[in-house]
Amino acid sequence: MKNLSYRIYYVWKRNLTAYKRFILPTLLVSLGEPFFYLIAMGLGLGAYMGLFGGKPYLFFLASGLVMASTMLTSTFECLYDSYVRMVIEKIYSSLIVTPISAEDIVAGDIAWGAFRGIISGFLMYIIALLMGAAPISLPTLLLLFGLMMVVGILFGSLAMIVTSFAPNFDFFNYYTQLVVSPIFFFSGVFFPLERFPEGIRIVAQFSPLTQAVIISRAIFEGHYSFSLYFNLLAIIIPTIIAFYLAIICMKRRLIK
């Protein structure tokens, strides 16, 4: 960790420069996902769901999908794209012979994954806003940005740990199917946790996405309580640990 420096920015900027070549198709794909979820589930399924806390199901769904979209994008960026940069394109090997340290490379890639996650989260928010399912104010935007940044770093770091052990692309299926998918569906994004069996509710409380969704819904509704600090700590502490482990694990793979 002591080798972390401002050069993280150069790694992030390098990824941004490469991303600009595909920004239009990437944004179109990113816009299609939130539109599909919010239309198919928010309006379609929502017509049969009734009110949630006095508000339509679409409002309930949007606040959860903003965080879920951030999680998924940062995860896949630090899984597949980081693996491509490391193994296929050999970009990590090229960077490591420069003054940029291994720690800077890993941290820069995690920062990039979090940035992609924030973009995806805000695209989801914009679609929800256009559909009348999200509030708009400067405090709301700032709080959501901060929350998405933490969520992006956390799941980007977790994905980077998996990438550090991956021998091939197929290895990622274990993580995405056995870890990411259950988190996505059982963290209160689509339905209130109170409607799940007690065992699932207990397990779901250990999911960082569950805590993020709780905070996101509080931001959307404008209702804040002291207990949200504990929800935030339940995200920040794993983020610090995962970030530290990601750098250690990936550094061991880069420097053999």
Q: Which terms summarize this structure?
A:
256 residues
What are the SSEs and their pairings?
Layout: H1 8-19, H2 23-44, E1 51-52, E2 55-56, H3 57-88, H4 91-96, H5 102-130, H6 138-165, H7 172-185, H8 198-204, H9 208-221, H10 227-254
Antiparallel strand pairs: 1-2
Helix pairs in contact: 1-5, 2-3, 2-5, 3-5, 3-6, 3-9, 5-6, 5-10, 6-9, 6-10, 9-10
Can you describe this structure?
The protein is mainly alpha-helical and 256 residues long. The protein has one domain (8-254). The chain is 75% helix and 2% strand. It contains ten helices and two strands. The protein has helices spanning 8-19, 23-44, 57-88, 91-96, 102-130, 138-165, 172-185, 198-204, 208-221, 227-254; strands at residues 51-52, 55-56. Strands 1-2 form a two-stranded antiparallel ribbon. Helix 6 (138-165) runs antiparallel to helix 9 (208-221). The longest helix has 32 residues, at 57-88. The radius of gyration is 18 Å and the shape is globular. The two termini are 18 Å apart.
Brief synopsis:
This protein is mostly helical.
Percent of residues in helices: over 70%
Tally of individual helices:
10
Q: State mean pLDDT (0 to 100 scale).
A: 88
What is the terminal-to-terminal distance? 18 Å
Question: What is the overall silhouette?
Answer: globular
Q: How much β-strand is present in the residues?
A: under 5%
Low-confidence stretches: none
The secondary-structure class comes to mainly alpha
Oligomer: single chain
DSSP strand tally? 2
**SSE topology string:** HHEEHHHHHHHH
How can the largest sheet be summarized?
Answer: 2 strands, antiparallel
The rounded Rg comes to 18 Å
The total tally of domains equals 1
User: How would you write the strand order of the largest sheet?
Assistant: 1-2
